[in-house]
Design brief:
The structure is a single chain. By secondary structure, the protein is an alpha+beta fold. It folds into 2 domains: 9-101, Arc Repressor Mutant, subunit A (Orthogonal Bundle); 105-220, Jelly Rolls. It is built from 7 helices and 12 strands. The protein has helices at residues 9-16, 22-32, 36-53, 65-79, 81-85, 100-106, 211-220, and strands at residues 116-119, 122-127, 135-141, 150-152, 156-162, 164-167, 170-173, 177-180, 185-186, 189-190, 196-202, 206-208. Strands 1-2-3-11-5-8 form a 6-stranded antiparallel β-sheet, covered by helices on one side. A 3-stranded antiparallel β-sheet has the order 9-4-12.
């Protein structure tokens, strides 16, 4: 798979350090399953972090630390959270349309997702994430559709799973990820024959520029 748009270095470092919100960690893990370059960058970051830990002075643990850690591991293992957001190994690389880190949340087929129509030509499927302060959802945008010009209230990551779109930053197709912050404004246009299906994590609601788009935002929920 040829990936042209990659994750920001800061996002890769935060993922390697386990410092990302769970919604964003799902997008990163899904991209890693599709991108050799970013997967290798995470491995390097993890190796650097491990080397730094060897130089940290030893410190005494508080009473009951091991018990609390064991309880956390047991809880996460039971609900599958660790499997979902853990670092992607070679065996986890995508062998279908849905990356492995995403399958436990939506299944193995994008065509079987229970989409909800939000406006003509645009469907959404919200993904519930426990312990996440951000929103995670799938968007399906019809061929030739142009999204309203908009910015972002915070960080937003968009991973393309099917189809493609173009904006001021270039053309984004399967495996590409847009790692954007609150300073970015753009207007994606779907330029593929098939609808463009994206996995999106966002800290804050989208900031639409047009009056009509702003009025409709509470109904659209994006």
């Amino acid at each position: 798979m040829s990936v042209h748009h990659h994750l920001d270095a800061a996002s890769l470092m935060r993922y390697a350090a386990g410092d990302l919100d769970p919604a964003f960690a799902i997008v990163v893990a899904s991209h890693l399953a599709m991108c050799d370059e970013c997967r290798e960058a995470v491995r390097l970051a993890e190796a650097i972090g491990g080397a730094c830990l060897t130089d940290v002075p030893e410190a005494a643990l508080s009473e009951g630390s091991f018990t609390r850690l064991s309880r956390m591991i047991d809880t996460e293992t039971d609900d599958g959270a660790v499997k979902t957001v853990a670092g992607v190994k070679d065996a986890d690389r995508v062998d279908g349309e849905v990356p492995l880190p995403l399958r436990s949340l939506i299944g193995e087929s994008l065509d079987e997702v229970p989409w909800r129509l939000v406006v003509p030509g645009v469907h959404r499927h919200r993904i519930e994430m426990a312990d996440s302060q951000s929103s995670l959802f799938l968007l399906k945008i019809g061929s030739g559709r142009k999204m309203p010009e908009h910015g972002h209230g915070g960080t937003e990551m968009t991973l393309i799973l099917r189809g493609s779109y173009s904006d001021t930053f270039g053309r984004f197709s399967r495996g590409d990820v847009a790692d954007l912050d609150e300073h970015v404004e753009h207007q994606p246009v779907v330029d593929s024959d098939d609808p463009c299906i994206c996995l999106v994590a966002t800290e804050e609601p989208t900031r639409f520029k047009g009056v009509v788009s702003r009025l409709m935002q509470p109904l659209v929920g994006i």
